[in-house]
Please model this.
Amino acid sequence: MTADQKAAPARAKGDTLLEIRGLYIEGQSDDVWHPIVKGVDLTLHRGEVLGLIGESGAGKSTLGLAAMGYARPGCRITAGSIVFDGIDLVKAELEAKRKLWGSRIAYVAQSAAAAFNPAHPILEQTIETGVREGTRSRADAIADAKELYGRLRLPNPDKIGYRYPHQVSGGQLQRAMTAMAMACRPDLIVFDEPTTALDVTTQVEVLAAIRDIVEQFHTAAIYITHDLAVVAQMADRIKVLRYGKEVEQAPTREMLTNPKEDYTKSLWAVRELETPERPGQEIILSIDHVTASYGNSVTVLDDVTVKVPRGRTVAVVGESGSGKSTLARVITGLLPPSKGQVIFEGKPLPPALKQRTKDSLRRIQMIYQMADTAMNPRHRVSDLIGRPAELYLGLKGRAREKRVIELLELIELDESFYDRLPGELSGGQKQRICIARALAAEPDLIICDEVTSALDQIVQEGILKLLLRLQSELNVSYLFITHDIATVRAIADEIVVMYQGKVVQQGLKTEVLQPPHPAYTELLLSSVPEMDPDWLNNLLAKRAAHPISGIKRADA
Amino acid sequence: MSAETPGMAVEPPIVRRRRGFRSRAWRGLKKAPPTAWFGLIVVFLYVFVALFAPWIAPFPESEATGAAFEPWSSEHLLGTDQLGRDMLTRMIYGARNTIGIAFATTILAFLIGGILGILVSIMRGWADQFVSRGVDVLMAIPALIFALMLLSIVGPSTTNIILIIAILDSTRVYRLTRSVAMNVVVMDYVESARLRGEGLGWIMGREILPNILPPLVAEFGLRFCFVFLTISALSFLGLGIQPPTADWGSMVRENATLISYGDITPLLPAGAIALLTVAVNFVVDWFLHKTSGLRDDG
Amino acid sequence: MNPVLRTVLQRLGLGLVTLFVVSVIIFIGIELLPGDFAKAILGQAATPDTVAAFQRTVGLDKPPVERYVAWILGVVQGDFGVSFSGLGALGGGQERSVADLIAPRLYNTLFLASFTAIIAVPLALTLGILAAFYRNSVFDRVVNSLTLTTISFPEFFVAYILMYFLAIKLPIFYSLANVGADTPLLERFARTTLPAMTLTLVIVAHMMRMTRAAIINLLASPYIEMAYLKGTPRMQVILRHALPNAWAPIATVIAFNLAYLVVGVVVVEVVYVYPGIGQLMVDSVSARDIPVVQACALIFAVTYILLNLAADIISIVTNPRLLHPR
Model:
């Protein structure tokens, strides 16, 4: 039976492959068991791709692993049944499950770099299960693995397998792991956020490769992700989870056009947020032909010039390694530039942090991506917000307390938060406290470094709206560093596109987002998944017809 | 993992309300395993005996109140030592001297190693290289051997012992502090404090120290045991705490000959050392398990 | 250059530098001697002439750098100088070279250490791996409490307990391990049984705990979970996926504990009156026989440094990232 015979243009769905009924899973923390998955039902047919989507803590990964009959150490299945092709995996002996794993049910982990054994070449790991279970001879398995690498469009499919995991890029490794999962032609593959750790332009290639191979072999799959646009491309049917329970499920197109539950609707609505741009006048910060590098080695910023107008938002967009975070380090003085200067309010800032005055430190504040690590877990909210007010503005005692409460109200939290510790706050609340801490210094410019990317989508919306409101009330400027185009649409007045340490394009939001684009901007913008289930197909068709030229991709 | 938050509009109630330190400590204690309870009680008893030695002991510390090597009797409950001093009295004063000296040494080691470790984690660069390589060299010589060599030069006195062991032991404290502080220094909140213009003192004391305290507390217990055992070993070898100060290590050595006659008296001070280190280790083990969460359970 | 070779050479270079610095530290010992040291050694009755003669013999009249070079050149050729004990107040005594004093004792100590290591290393690794596998089982908990107890004991406590029960109450073994140069091999084993047992108990506890921690750490890696989810049988997960990555931590554990053995030997030798280098060092420290102390300290330090060096080199040559550079 060849792959081509199995592949069908319209995906004929077979009989039921996996049936989960009333599943409860508990996890242990601090010696207490608490529920993670609370009574979920799930049905999967042969050859069907089910998208599991939900925010952090929804229990989607736990459910995905449970579909294999596996619970991580510290987790336990307490009730329900998981029937895979007639076998109840809850009751099955470990040995029986082991026979299924790798052969009939396979797993693709989020971080391929961590999930490949560093001590063996990729090919060895790809063919391991097949050779061990005796389904193929070693030579056959090797030939087949090479063919799979080719189908997944890995470069050099005959040779790449002999490389070690650390010698291969992240996007390639993720495809190699898909090949490993496919090696025994399983009936079911569980994909656990396989593209979350990748850049958008890499993600497109991996998504396309995964989707094609699953289709070619008519494999059933559970695709776990938090990204709606991604799941829209991959899944036949979508199941929305929240707090370990199902919210709703429906075929993909129906779910996208006509979600029933409020929660689902709110998820969908976030991506629609968009504000009109406002051209700026007076320039408050200008980065003037800055070149910077770490040590004496690689140049991270190469002759970068960026201007930020007062009371406006400039979004700096780029992928990892583009130098956008380094830009923030140069502005704040953490990394003195080797050439060029940073001009603030018409005057050049001293390059190094130590030479700057307290007042210039006060006027530029920073908010971080991970609110968790940006706040000292041992400091209370009153100290976190009160400290800058005390340090810069000399507020003490009652005055400080009053100011902290004012700021809490400004960020839509109340007095009850006054003496909480960060560990007692939710993700969104933490980021709000970080915003309040920046505002306490009464700054002119706030650098926002990926401030929403670690947050769930609904929480993101709240934070973005808050930032917009604060800007209109306080006339503060934002330098908004992000890789997420949806966030840019929502908040930016001007956009700076960066690639490999250089500014590729900058201008007003509409100018940058409207074609024609420079090659890299085109690649970046077109790679951002959209909610349209046909987006990936259209994109691939378009790229096949008009290849984007002039960009060297390290990760091809 | 406490529930991560969903939407702003529908922030769930915070699951974990803050409890007072005392009630949390009590709850933790109630759930402690029997080994930890045993450890805590033993440590408490030792500290009590050490503090109130002059009131508990039946005789003065170094006065011969009987003949040499008297057997156990109603007057000398544990007999007498090679100079006719009451064993029980020596044991009780031994608690005070041995524990006191080991404790002082450990504190000193933590002051040296802890401050250097935090400083270096902030300064990095050449300061880190310089101190770390120096520590590597010091650690390239086994501590007991190094201590023996230094003592042969400066001669054994209580001050010398405290200084030498504290400096040698501070290398290990330094390594631990540096490595845990390095993990904290890279946190955004430390960068944020630097951007705010905070001084070195604030960053060391307010940003870093509170976050590395749990491993340091556990390490204090372990280092105390190690120091205690090292000093006892030195005393046992006759190169530690010098007579007539009552000290468990020396007591074992002085009375060791009794063992060949089947008398277990010299095992008592050795056992006293063992019991205390076992107790401290049990407490530390429990504390580590608690503060590191599931670290051990993969 | 091949990165493995480069890293190994770097590490060897660093080891040499450490050895040099350690030798300097040990040498400086003699510089720190208080002024009236000669008197202390020779006795109060020493005349200025004898003191001057003593200082000439020891070489105190030459500049320190010159003396260091002479000392270290001697050491490299196996000449550690002359023991003070022959120069003592009793005068007239035979001059004894440090090397002659140390050689037979070094042999004894190495004999005891190897004897212990051969038993302790395999035992500890096996127990540690088993405890890691069956972690949180009754076996693990019992072993954990037992080893925690053992490492808390001072070595002399373990030694006397064993002596009390296994040599005095039940006279199975020799209570003292006083061997001589002409003791037959079999008797040598018999006499060193108790010291070896004591050391084994102490080392096994340490080593087992470290092995367990290292293995648990390794088993928590995502690639181990992946191997498991590929249906790999448990034994193969260990052999194929964990073991190739485990050499570095295991080597570190073994080296650390063998180094620990070197130190533990001092106390145990004193308890069992075993004529090894540890006991020699203790006696020399009491007698302030500095050349002997220096020689012993140097030997201990070199062993220690070489063991750690070996562990580092094993870690380097088994690291796939270095073996297969990009």
